[in-house]
Amino acid sequence: MPTNFTVVPVEAPAGGSEAPSAQGLQQPEHLDEPTNESSRSQDRAGAHERQAQQSERGSVERGSQGDGIPRESSPFINNSSFERGRLYEGKNMALFEEEMDSNPMVSSLLNKLANYTNVTQGVVEHEEDEDTKRKEIKAPRMGTFIGVYLPCLQNILGVILFLRLTWIVGTAGVLESFIIVFMCCAGTMLTAISMSAIATNGVVPAGGSYYMISRSLGPEFGGAVGLCFYLGTTFAGAMYILGTIEILLKYISPNAAIFHGGEEATLNNMRVYGTCIVAMMAIVVFVGVKYVNKLALVFLACVILSIMAIYAGVIKTAFDPPDFPICLLGNRTLARDKDFPCAKYIEANNITVTTRLWRWFCGNNPYLNATCDEYFQLNNVTEIQGIPGIASGVLLDNLWSIYSDKGTIVEKRDLPSVPVLDEAKDEQDYYVYTDIMTYFTMLVGIYFPSVTGIMAGSNRSGDLRDAQKSIPTGTILAISTTSFIYLSCIILFGACIEGVVLRDKFGQAVNGNLVIGTLAWPSPWVIVIGSFFSTCGAGLQSLTGAPRLLQAIARDGIVPFLQVFGHGKANGEPTWALLLTALICEIGILIASLDSVAPILSMFFLMCYLFVNLACAVQTLLRTPNWRPRFRYYHWTLSFLGMSLCLALMFICSWYYALIAMLIAGCIYKYIEYRGAEKEWGDGIRGLSLNAARYALLRVEHGHPHTKNWRPQVLVLLNLDSEQLVKHPRLLSFTSQLKAGKGLTIVGSVLPGTYLDKYAEAERAEENIRSLMGIEKTKGFCQIIVSSSIRDGISHLIQSAGLGGMKHNTVLMAWPQSWKQTDNTFSWKNFVDTVRETTAAQQALLVAKNIDLFPVNQERFSEGNIDVWWIVHDGGMLMLLPFLLKQHKVWRKCRMRIFTVAQMDDNSIQMKNDLQMFLYHLRINAEVEVVEMFENDISAFTYEKTLLMEQRSQMLKQMQLSKNEREREAQLIHDRNTASHATGMVKSQTAIAAPEKVQMTWTKEKLVSEKHKNKEACMTSYKDIFSMKPNESNVRRMHTAVKLNGVVLNKSQHAQLVLLNMPGPPKNRHGDENYMEFLEVLTEGLNRVLLVRGGGREVITIYS
């Protein structure tokens, strides 16, 4: 009989030594308390001495770092434990001692912010590293004018202005040229506004557009657009080099050409000279980057002097136009040099002498009776001024566009001419021809590179005194200035220069001079030399900046195959990136045509600007708490307009180039998303995803979804070993094979213990599971629960996993293989409790038995069956699951077979027809078979198996009880089996339900006699276990399990997968172990089994 004992704890002694904590509290007070004034002065002297020693120790460091205060790469990183100890010295902050390691003092934070630097990862930093003699690093002192305005001016004004703008004005006319320039300038202005908002939203380290885009839109967009910007900058270097060669061979030294002849010779000259210049520039950048930086002011001076010479020449034409006559035959422009008389013949000493022009058109015959070209005979030769001046009224003639095909003679529109019907179409050297076919969109692509370079100021943010003030002001002023220069030049060129001269791209009609140079004052050489050095400088700047941009992308680690380009020389110079840049630049050189290279880099720059506007628009619309730019003159509509304009310009320039650029960016995006390193930069796309997720979750209904929208939202319960590794990784493989369901996946596990003790293990377990999910390509979330018991942890997961309407409706777990082991009782008890809880939550349950035999994602079943044994209707889960599995390549070639069981009074033929019709309406292809199971007597095997099951269950209970409990339980068994069944049950329930509380006093003799009595009862109870009779209900259940197992084995023993209805657990918890035995018998002999228990709702429907 159970007996209660009262245990009295031993009380601790009242006296004792003091707690150590009390001593610890008194000791600092005693040590810190000064005894007299002399001791305080000694303390101060010692403090000064320690400071002097620290100062002396840091002298070497100050020699290299300037002011002796170390500069931080981040203002929120603690230096060392020594500094922390010094910062928290004293007793005033003793209350916060526990937070010293993680939370810095405010004074420490402000000190680090004051000493924070973001010096550009470029020329300035490398100069400082190389100059070991420098004793002091000067703080950034560049203002808006020097630091932003002038660099932007230098980068925006370039080769297109000097070599192509006059030709664009002549071809497109003043009106359309104005539209082209205005669109491009408007796009850059809107981009500058968006860039200003991003650049002033916190401290922007060096990196320019790449940094801003990547930190605003995430690593995928940042890497894709950063690489596009890198390619654009590299091809810009090729364009500048081609412009340099064109100026050299066309206008400075035409005799330096290696190849002579037609267009092919010109392209070959470009390739040879371009390759040599690229090699020389790469060597200069590799050896002496600091000289390139110092020469930037010289190149900028050349640009400014050239612009001033153009305006001075325009003013001069108002009262003294330059003498640059051009020769026309009829209305056709003739190519001429300095010794070319513009006449058919001239009078010399009263003698008519034919000119070179006559000999050209008359077969080199100098006589007046020679047979000449018909057009030459019918039309007069006229000489007009190529630059009539701003007061000439030529602007009206140049308002409209004149587009033409390649090889068309440049003609003056309003000059009379006698046409010739049967004229030969072959090009002749004495006319000026168009070298390419011209149209509006092509001119946009050629012109747009002239407005790029707006990022020059943001690239120098580390050198600016106040970057958040200088970048917006300087950039917008620079764009306004250059826009004014371009737009005014459009009008002034159209008002000063004759149309045929404007359309003469290479100045053949004006003695081979640069057209814009003929307008300049005081000499055309000002423009020629200025533009030559300007293009050289721009090419050097491109080859200097592009490798550093590639190095920044490589060092971010978002594109794995580019990591080699993050390395370089000891001082940080990007050697490998420079080599790759030179090779890509050489590709542009081999194209050998400035007009062909310009649209390529236009695509890349436009894509970059497009995403800058997108970044600003996204951040503005999200209104995240961190979006607080100092620049206030922005709006999301302006950013959206700028984005739309950039996208339109891309397709206007060249729709196929635009598609190729987008394809390249898209491939890079997907590559970074698939293979790139995980980066969390707090970007806007993450914020956009959060907003979208929040909006979607609020819209998802909290109730049960409609049957048509039902999909398996799976909670996967994993078991972990002692090392927090997944015991059954193939459970995740099976989960990924169900991904055709397009549902939510939550992978969960439970660690026993307390969270404070198991925090590190929980983190490690989550990391291991996430890693395995990545290997198995399981898309979903991971959740680790630390609970006092595994059962409670699983219950918490089933109840609380998911969020809002996105909660799981299906639980997937593995069958506990070792549940029969005596030391693993909790395994099957937790399993049965999980079955009950999923049933109570109206969730479906999937139990994979022999999970280690399930296929991994790399396996392929070339044949075989997926057999579904549909015993009871569970809402359609048994139909839906094999359909989803067959969508995966592992199971795709398996056939689906559905078996159902017919009883004695069922019509098997009608059942088969009805099932086939049901599957037809469900749009599921499967073979159907009805298996008949007739009632028969219970076999001796079934009876014996049930008996062994109950005996084993009872013995396990005995083995798991304590000694006293075992003896008491044995007495109960003995009483139950010797008395009548009903009486015994009542007595046992009474004894268990209401144990009697008795106060007893034991003597030694009574204790010994009681022990012998209990031992005898225990031995008797074991005999009773082997003589007990099985329960009738258990016999019937075992009969069903054995019989159904035989039928399944007969049909599906060799199936690749068998899906079975999972029977529910008994309502009486005393039969839980028998329930496990029934399931074991039901699935015995089958390789791969998926037990399915529906949630009680329809999950599949025949309706659309």
TrEMBL record:
<protein>
    <submittedName>
        <fullName>Solute carrier family 12 member 7 isoform X2</fullName>
    </submittedName>
</protein>
<keyword id="KW-0630">Potassium</keyword>
<dbReference type="GO" id="GO:0055064">
    <property type="term" value="P:chloride ion homeostasis"/>
</dbReference>
<dbReference type="GO" id="GO:0006884">
    <property type="term" value="P:cell volume homeostasis"/>
</dbReference>
<feature type="domain" description="Amino acid permease/ SLC12A">
    <location>
        <begin position="440"/>
        <end position="715"/>
    </location>
</feature>
<dbReference type="GO" id="GO:0005886">
    <property type="term" value="C:plasma membrane"/>
</dbReference>
<keyword id="KW-0472">Membrane</keyword>
<feature type="transmembrane region" description="Helical">
    <location>
        <begin position="634"/>
        <end position="658"/>
    </location>
</feature>
<keyword id="KW-0406">Ion transport</keyword>
<dbReference type="GO" id="GO:1990573">
    <property type="term" value="P:potassium ion import across plasma membrane"/>
</dbReference>
<keyword id="KW-0597">Phosphoprotein</keyword>
<feature type="compositionally biased region" description="Basic and acidic residues">
    <location>
        <begin position="40"/>
        <end position="51"/>
    </location>
</feature>
<feature type="domain" description="SLC12A transporter C-terminal">
    <location>
        <begin position="847"/>
        <end position="1104"/>
    </location>
</feature>
<feature type="transmembrane region" description="Helical">
    <location>
        <begin position="522"/>
        <end position="540"/>
    </location>
</feature>
<feature type="transmembrane region" description="Helical">
    <location>
        <begin position="576"/>
        <end position="594"/>
    </location>
</feature>
<feature type="transmembrane region" description="Helical">
    <location>
        <begin position="476"/>
        <end position="502"/>
    </location>
</feature>
<feature type="transmembrane region" description="Helical">
    <location>
        <begin position="296"/>
        <end position="315"/>
    </location>
</feature>
<keyword id="KW-0813">Transport</keyword>
<dbReference type="InterPro" id="IPR004841">
    <property type="entry name" value="AA-permease/SLC12A_dom"/>
</dbReference>
<keyword id="KW-0633">Potassium transport</keyword>
<dbReference type="Pfam" id="PF03522">
    <property type="entry name" value="SLC12"/>
</dbReference>
<feature type="transmembrane region" description="Helical">
    <location>
        <begin position="436"/>
        <end position="456"/>
    </location>
</feature>
<feature type="domain" description="Amino acid permease/ SLC12A">
    <location>
        <begin position="148"/>
        <end position="315"/>
    </location>
</feature>
<feature type="transmembrane region" description="Helical">
    <location>
        <begin position="143"/>
        <end position="167"/>
    </location>
</feature>
<dbReference type="GO" id="GO:0055075">
    <property type="term" value="P:potassium ion homeostasis"/>
</dbReference>
<keyword id="KW-0868">Chloride</keyword>
<feature type="transmembrane region" description="Helical">
    <location>
        <begin position="600"/>
        <end position="622"/>
    </location>
</feature>
<feature type="transmembrane region" description="Helical">
    <location>
        <begin position="224"/>
        <end position="252"/>
    </location>
</feature>
<dbReference type="GO" id="GO:0007268">
    <property type="term" value="P:chemical synaptic transmission"/>
</dbReference>
<dbReference type="Pfam" id="PF00324">
    <property type="entry name" value="AA_permease"/>
</dbReference>
<feature type="domain" description="SLC12A transporter C-terminal">
    <location>
        <begin position="729"/>
        <end position="846"/>
    </location>
</feature>
<dbReference type="InterPro" id="IPR000076">
    <property type="entry name" value="KCL_cotranspt"/>
</dbReference>
<keyword id="KW-1133">Transmembrane helix</keyword>
<keyword id="KW-1003">Cell membrane</keyword>
<dbReference type="InterPro" id="IPR004842">
    <property type="entry name" value="SLC12A_fam"/>
</dbReference>
<keyword id="KW-0812">Transmembrane</keyword>
<feature type="transmembrane region" description="Helical">
    <location>
        <begin position="179"/>
        <end position="204"/>
    </location>
</feature>
<keyword id="KW-0769">Symport</keyword>
<dbReference type="InterPro" id="IPR018491">
    <property type="entry name" value="SLC12_C"/>
</dbReference>
<comment type="similarity">
    <text>Belongs to the SLC12A transporter family. K/Cl co-transporter subfamily.</text>
</comment>
<dbReference type="GO" id="GO:0015379">
    <property type="term" value="F:potassium:chloride symporter activity"/>
</dbReference>
<feature type="region of interest" description="Disordered">
    <location>
        <begin position="1"/>
        <end position="81"/>
    </location>
</feature>
